[in-house]
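A common beginner's mistake is to predict each chain separately and then try to dock the pieces by hand. The better habit, illustrated here, is to supply every component at once so that their relative placement is modeled jointly.
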Amino acid sequence: MSKLTLDDLRKLRDDKKKSMSQRDSEGKRGEIIIGMGTCGIAAGAKVAFDAMLDEMEKVGVTDISIKQTGCMGLCFSEPTVEVSTSDMPHVVYGNVDEETARRIVRDHLVGKALVSDHIFDKPSIDIINPAGN
Amino acid sequence: MKLIELEINGIPVSVEAGTTILDAAKQVGVKIPTLCYHADLEPWAACGICVVKAEGSPKMLRACATTVAPGMKIITHDPEIVQVRRTVLELTLSTHPNDCLKCGRNGNCELQTLSEEFGIREIPYEHRVNEIPIDNTTGSIVLNPEKCIKCGRCAKVCQDMQNVWALEFIGRGDDTRIAPAADVTLEESPCIKCGQCSAHCPVGAIYENDQTQTVWNAIREGEKHCVVQIAPAVRVAIGEAFGMEPGEIMTGQLYAALRRIGFDAVFDTNFSADLTIIEEGNEFVKRFTGGGVMPQITSCCPSWTDYMEKYATDFIPNFSSAKSPQQMLGAMAKTYYAEQSKVEAEDMFVVSVMPCTAKKFEVSRCESMGASGFQDVDVSITTRELARMIKQAGIDFNRLPEEEADHLLGDYSGAGTIFGVTGGVMEAALRSAYFLITKEDLEDVNFMEVRGMEGVKSAEIDIKGTKVRVAVAHQMGNVEALLNEIRAARDAGEETPYHFIEVMACRGGCIGGGGQPHGATDEIRAKRTAGIYSDDEKSVQRCSHHNPMITKIYKEFLGEPLGHKAHELLHTDYQEREVYKK
Amino acid sequence: MAYKNYILICAGTACESNKGIALYDALEKEIKAAGLESEVQLVKTGCFGFCSEGPIVKILPDESFYVRVKPEDAKEIISEHMVKGRKVERLLYKEIGAEKASEEIGFYHKQFRIVLRNCAVINPEIIDEYIARDGYAAIEKALFELTPDDVLQEIKDSGLRGRGGAGFPTGMKWGFTKGTDADQKYIVCNADEGDPGAYMDRSVLEGDPHSVLEAMSIAGYTVGANKGFIYIRAEYPLAIDRLNLAIKQAKEYGLLGDNILGTDFSFDIELRLGAGAFVCGEETALLASIEGNRGMPIPRPPFPAVKGLWGKPTVINNVETWANIPVILLKGSKWFSSIGTETSKGTKVFALTGKVNNIGLIEVPMGTTLREIIYEVGGGIASGKPFKAAQTGGPSGGCITPQFLDTPIDYESLQSIGSMMGSGGMIVMDEDDCIVDVTKFYLEFTVDESCGKCAPCRIGGRTCYNILDRFTKGQGKMEDLQQLKDISLAMRKASLCGLGQTASNPIMSTLKYFPEEYRAHIEDNTCPAGKCKDMITFTINDKCIGCTACARVCPVNCIEGKVKEAHVIDQAACIKCGQCFNTCKFDAIDRV
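With all components supplied together, the output reads:
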């Protein structure tokens, strides 16, 4: 990576913005975002992460990307996993242990059904991309 | 310079910018109590006693550390402020042993004074003193952490003024205490025993190792011939312990007191200071004219030699091999005087009274301190200890008649007495070096360029065409820059910036020594200094080589300066020592 | 194939207890009856946190939010909304007083993530994602469109105040440093977050490290500094790693380091790790620590903004303050100052912990009331017991009692009721928390962390702690209360730094609002909350039927008794853990 000029930076920003908002642009149907702050890791997010990857391989899900992020604020329900796919509502799952991680892959990603008992609400609105933008 | 106008307790005050509230208050007769504050140091602002209010702010400010601002309206005493200060003092007392009656600072303690001023009658808070053992490993300075009130003066003095860093804060919270880093003992630390810590301590937490009992025992047992010598700086400060002004010359009274205490012979270190000049002056001229190691550095200050042996071993070759006046007199007492008085050296007990705690360490510094065959100086006590002995002996010091010393090792020239101030050794040496180089005597023996309180003084002295560059440093913290200057020239292969250097570890020289009466500030140091120069001016002889007793000792005993006998008895050597022994 | 609709029904404790289960069953029945099993999925969720409006039912994907739903409403929801696509207006959440259903739900809008804007959205280890979310657009704007004076004016106009606890106006602080001439200036980030239970800064650094880097560069541009330090406590290894990686990536892109974005402005940032001292969060002690000295505060004035690191003018701000800077520059000071109260602009991140349902990090606009935070965002008291007090500001703060629940939270209001904002810790207590014990806990912390330099804090803190300790052991005397007050006054007025000055806040605050609890400890020798072990005794009364449940959970096996016979607790061995008391279903254990 080399140093950016002002124009480089602006172009990079626009490109990346597009790719992050278009779920299909990289051939992916959607993405899973796992909270990997210290609280998440302490609660077992890495185990859930590994289980999810493993299950996705087992059942052959290849069109969902997995990302890591920081703390969402729902610390009491860590590990938290956000699932957003183009064909289903955008939800936040909490208390995701290994078992639940696998259920998310099987029921939500494949079966298109929400995983009962583990849904929490996203706690606040996005000020960068307010709802609808 | 524009002055800043403010009000203190409603009284208008105008002071220069940068003045603290504490100092501004002094100008209008308002005395804000302090405890950790000391004029020698940057305000540490720890104790919380000097708090005052500024109108318009709910907070309290520390008067010692806050500089004045235009229009400030300061209140120094109101019920809330007094209450807060009192609580802080009570809390401080609640962690203090409060066994004043058995303490070395009884009657001379800043905590006592504050308690008395505040009218403390009870301490409502639980009494809590952490048990910590005393450190007396150096034999010169004693650290008693149980009495420490964490004012920080000793650590700041050791770090900022002396640049030795033997003391530091260790531990945290109410386990905080002051000790060498890594909690080693003082003996294992870089401590150079200068005693400046003890001179600044407001209470009895760090003090000189009291050896008065050793002296009393020797005198009372009556078996030994007891000899005493007093240092130049003692005579202008001893009076302070008896209510006299600093700088008052009490030499004659000292001789009288010492005789009454029971010493068999009363000598004066100023004599051996003259002796030191003969030896060191000759050594210097020899080096200077013969291409010897330059610069030559004075070695009469044992804190300085200790510092050098630890921190600046690359200067060992530069040090004068001459012993300090204390040691020279001890050696002469047990040889020359022994011969003359027909007293065996092993029956002689030599005591020195010094403004210095490091002299306690010097008496057994190395083998050459026993050149007479026995330890040349048996014990060294400080001015403070002598004051206590005088009081214990029932002597009304101020009303004593003036007596004379025993002449053999007691007569001195003005050059000898100025050893007690910074620049004095240099000036004394120059007075004689002039003669040694030119074979003539000076018209005006005063060398004003090397006098004064500046940290490092330098001058180029013209000895009839021969240029001698000298430097004088005092207060250990000022030395490093000077040494680095010399090192830089040395490394670059350039000519040395100085030929002769005098170093004294204590601010102001020995008159500001670690063993002098408490409470020294620059004002007091200036008065003591003036006393010394006054003693010099009143002296019959002003130069060491004119001192008839000096001429006598060479003729009858020593032979030539730097000769064989002189070398055996009056010279020493140096070794490398560890900064930290652990 | 995905479902057409999802019905999310809140299965939190509160909603369930309010006929939530019956509602679920009713909905299930109606879905079946309408033959929509393959089109509508019924899903149980965790607590939405809006417990006062429960039971909650949320419909996705259209995001309809039904409140106070009863089992009888199930039929209408299915037939009207699911089958015909018509929302059931009367069930939709409305703001109080509104007539139409509101699109905006208080629960969502109570939280407004500015500082935490990127947390849980981006991968903090990929700089491109930060850039995509308008990252480094603020430094762009500063360098190419604004002068340092412009930036300073924006920050001043925004009304941003330091989020570390003191609340000093950030713009003013930057102004002092900008206005002081020097050959070198510094920018420092205080990431030594030391309040027990506070982790707001950690989350920002772990989840959005670039926001801090960008902000510090902006400050450097504004005041004329080209060197920054982030002083971060060593106990945050993940944040340290993320910061180091972020710095590396930013440097590779030329967004940090020499000639940023090709301009002649250079700014470098270095990390410095703390070594376990809470007092190093105090700015002068922090700077001393960076200089390699013992972390002990020095008197102010002069303030670091004028004479700081190595004697040079230094801007030192808290992580959360920094995180606000890029947004202020991009969205404007007008937008920022429209959020919050008259004197306290913007949002505040709180670590909401203690006895609430929803424990976590919340970010709310200044002016939100404590009631809204505890009951709406926090989801109410977990145990269902009455709210006793909330401790804000960590060991420097005080207790907020029920009478102040409707206080809008800002710097001034909290101070006026004897507490302070602090860095954002908020611990909620119910009647099972002993106020004396909590106060003692805070003193234990401050006493442990006191640097020891000044007498009032070093000695006074310990003396106060010992007194409180005696209270919790039943050895207190009423005269001790006066001692606490006297020492507290001396500590507040004569301590050298904020640690000592505020250490007595918990004492003064609890003495004022809970004098009865202190009196009970001292005079009655009891702990009303049942917390202070030395003063409580568990005894088994005659309701015991010998079920042995208590004996089985006792960790020290001090309960003797045969099956079906009354059991006895060996008082000498009892460690007062209370397990037996919690286990007994027959009310047979007395706690006195």
